[in-house]
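Suppose a classmate hands you a notebook page containing two proteins, each written out with its sequence and a corresponding row of structure tokens. How would you begin to make sense of it? This section walks through that situation. The first entry is reproduced here exactly as it would appear on such a page.
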Amino acid sequence: MTVCPEIMTAIPTAPQRDGGLPVRRTPGLRATILSFVWVLVGLCGGSTFAAGPKPNIVYILCDDLGYGDVRCLNSDGKIATPRMDALARDGMVFTDAHSGSAVCTPTRYGVMTGRYAWRSRLQSGVLGGLSPSLIEPGRLTVASLLKDHGYHTACVGKWHLGVDWVKLDGKDVNPLSIETPKQVHNVDYSSPFANGPLANGFDEYFGISASLDMVPYTFLRGDRVEVLPTVDKAFAMMHGREGGKTRLGPAAPEFEDEHVLPALTKETIRIVESQAAAAKSGKPFFIYLPLASPHTPIAPTAEWRGKSGLNPYADFVMQTDHCIGQIVDAIDKAGLKENTLIVVTSDNGCSPQAKFDELLAKGHNPSDVFRGTKADIFEGGHHIPFLVRWPARVKAGTETDQTVWLGDFMATCAELVGAPLPENAGEDSVSYLAVLEGRATGPVHEAVVHHSINGSFAIRQGEWKLAVCPDSGGWSAPRPNNPQASKGLPDVQLFNLKDEIGEQTNLQDAHPEVVKKLRALLEKYIADGRSTPGAPQKNAVEVKLVK
């Protein structure tokens, strides 16, 4: 694992262990002074943000972007990502950030709620474009929290948390999985849907229901489709290639997959420009931008095809990087750079649909030094890019090896606005504001839990990672439900990521005491309904540690 050369020249280089994880640095004078100030403020019963303006927040969640796809994180990477690299130079890089799951829906649930999605009804897999809402009625979301504290809240992009469509008489859809081909016409697309983004704290919404390979193929605005899907379409999974296509289903006549990324970018810029005056007058905005790229269908527009010299996936990553840059430029042009917190991250690791064989043959590994891909319990499934720029509070050219997960956004926002979280909200969320400001003097998390597509668990504490399964839990070898592949393998896997980031040596037999300790902690987190201090809470369903 490497970080931008520009960053490493701006700060003292952290010594690297054999496994690639930076050694924790002792905080310097600035961090010590800030910590002392924070203690004084706390004793006075206040918050550092009580006296200052609240930041605008733009949270960009890429779809299936691998850690190794961002040049500043992977010095051996072959995809040019100048705009993300610039954000890293101007802000902070997290080298040990994780998605809540190795696939998309559960990660999005965690971002919005600060709660692991395996506490919800969804125990494995993902929702479809027609699935009902996953977020429980009345649950606090990041958007509702910020809206209650004076923010204008907007969601632009791939929702994929379910909405309650009006179904045709006698018809139904799968509640917790992708709809079947026979179900795609079971919805009354002319009627408004309920319990979408507007019901979860957003003032405005524009985007698509789920992944761009799921119906309906039409834009949504507010609580309804913008153009009725009156034809059936399917798109090539990778433009310019023969082979697989997306699911066939209802589409707006003019809707094309390659138009989505530019449309989401244009809408985000419109919101920034329309909210700039209010933001300068004391009403900040929050934009949650869950992109649909570079997920399938891999659909770069004409001007980006062939740009990478690698393959269409790499072209699509480059276009995604460019669109992020356009949004950053809009923020800066509006005079909002100093006090706008920008986060760029990904919902999970890179998908095999990117054609790893083609990319590896040209020297590019989307998973960088990590084992596995999207869907896996291995690091390649959930170890993700995480870049933050916030000139007012985050020192340029910094990096941290703090272990965090995307659900920490909830507690961070709560601290930003000086609002303690209720007992029944953000049960797994820990603020990383102290990390951003250079005040953290130790790990912010006791431990972090990982989850794979088939519901397999892992728990990470310090250098140790325990996976409670004998296989990948996902799409890499050894695959689940393959007795031949997992024959003779232990029931659990214990890795020391300090010594070996590639997760090749299972140490469960050599360190049974670590296995026992981590398993007990994971069982406690499950039983308590939370992994943070506070009153025990209830999970939505019984959670089984071993599937």
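The notebook's second entry, a different protein, reads as follows.
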Amino acid sequence: MTISDWADQNRRLSSEASAEPGQWRTARAEYQRGIMEAVSDAATETVVIMSSSQVGKTEVVNNCVGYHIDQDPAPIMVVMPTERDAETWSKDRFSPMARDTPSLQHKIANPKSRDGNNKILHKRFPGGHLTIVGANAPSGLASRPIRLLLCDEVDRYPFSAGAEGDPVNLAKKRTVTFWNRKIVLVSTPTNKGESRIEAAFEESDQRRFWVPCPDCGHDQILTWGQVKWDKDEAGGHRPGTALYHCAECDAAWTDETRWAAISKGRWRAEAPFNGTAGFHLNEIYSPWVRLEAMAKAFLSARAGGDETMKTFVNTSLGETWMESGEAPDWQRLQGLKEEWRAGTVPAAGLFLTAGADVQKDRIEVDVWAWGRGLQSWLIDHIVIEGGPGDPVCWQKLTDLLGRTWDHASGTPMTIARLAIDTGYETAAVYAWARQVGFGQVAPVKGLEGFNRASPVTGPTFVDATIAGKRLRRGARLWTIATSTFKAETYRFLRLDPPEVTSPGDGERFPPGFLHLPGWVDAEWLKQLTAEQLVTVKNKRGFAKLEWQKLRERNEALDCRVYARAAAWILGADRWSAARWEELASQFAAVDAKGTVPTRGTHKIRKAQVRRVVRSNYMG
């Protein structure tokens, strides 16, 4: 009896764990049959399932557990990302299955019994036991020998289980004493080059589910590119018309036609079998998802930007997300430059930030204006000669904090926040930042790697050496994931402008569009595009994404990253539409008499002593 046979005969779906309670039917999602048969196959040692959500992969795990408890007793371990996830699975998934499936009811002890055979994370049954652990608990992973290992959502596992190393490898070591061991790895993928499930799938025979067209009979893998929908006369999308189109004859399938075609599909391997069976699925195969809902999710994700699009690619398409970090062509950017009066801020720019890169003989500063949708305009590029060892250099940087740039409305604007790199001459940077105050200045430290949950963390208090004396917690430091902002910058540089362009009309440009002025030269553009994102392997063979320089000088890119971090620190990524509207209302147009409103204005003054300048248009 295979696992799918057992499930069809015995498994009962519980009302609190399934939208369709009652008798299990593998035919409801036919692709699940091949996965469960692979787990039953004695020749298969490892099964890898890389898929989207909503395809029933967790129910496959449940069936594997139920089958072995009833038909082939063995020590079983289920590994979840955290101990809390382990408890949730035990209470919400396993317990209802054990209660409602007749063949399991008398094999699992009553949870109210006092003999300890049915605890939340450890359950005994005749011939074996079930242990449920979190990948963040090394003691649970290394506690006992296991024959059947089921690892769910492995891409959410921590990098290391405590100090003992990779939790998947740690769990696999528990199976080495069994000649007939079985390892099942299940997950929705994450970032390319960092995804455990993708690496495991690439080492498998890479099976994909081929579906015959009801019209022409052509076998095909269902892909998102074949999902199409109409637009109205105004160009608006109509996701309610979404249909799947055959890759061969272009026949349009309704949801019901698609589900019927999937029931006749079959798995086909793309690589030789080596003991590991790999399966890939996306949400288009799911009998519980309509294409209209997928189209709406896609349009919403695309409008939301990189963060939400990554979620769609991972959870709906079951594919890894590739950070769009390849260097754009600087010559293309030459043709995208726009003309507005030098030293002025276009009407759609609502606040200023600056990024400062400290070099041996100079400090380079780029001033950027920001508007709705995180559109940005390069306002000024300043090189302060002298370097961190010259007091005059720091005085000029201090003066820059009080300088103003005219907004298109006539309102003078100052820098709301300046982020300065602390990687070179850290003590000098801390001393200057402490002198001018941390209200307008943010010392930053860049870290490699992607952190999309929070690309900026802090501030943390760090020790600083001021005038030869060490001050505990004397400076505030922000830590930024430079890879995240570099990838975002390059993605914004690839956006196409509208046919009719106007630098001051931000509404016509896509969110995130990066506006470059006509005065910027080729050297600055080359510096902005001076790096590329590549996949490299370390000594242990693990792949990771890494930024590498295409040319030596990259100050423009660094300054952009710091200015972007300054905007994040101010909270621009989290502002509501009302906040943006309030900000825009402070830039009233010049009246008929030519007078400029006084609110939000700042006069230029040479700063001879320590002072802090705060712009009231930022609140």
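A careful reader of the second entry would note: Residues 3-214+266-288 form a domain with the Rossmann fold fold (CATH 3.40.50.300).
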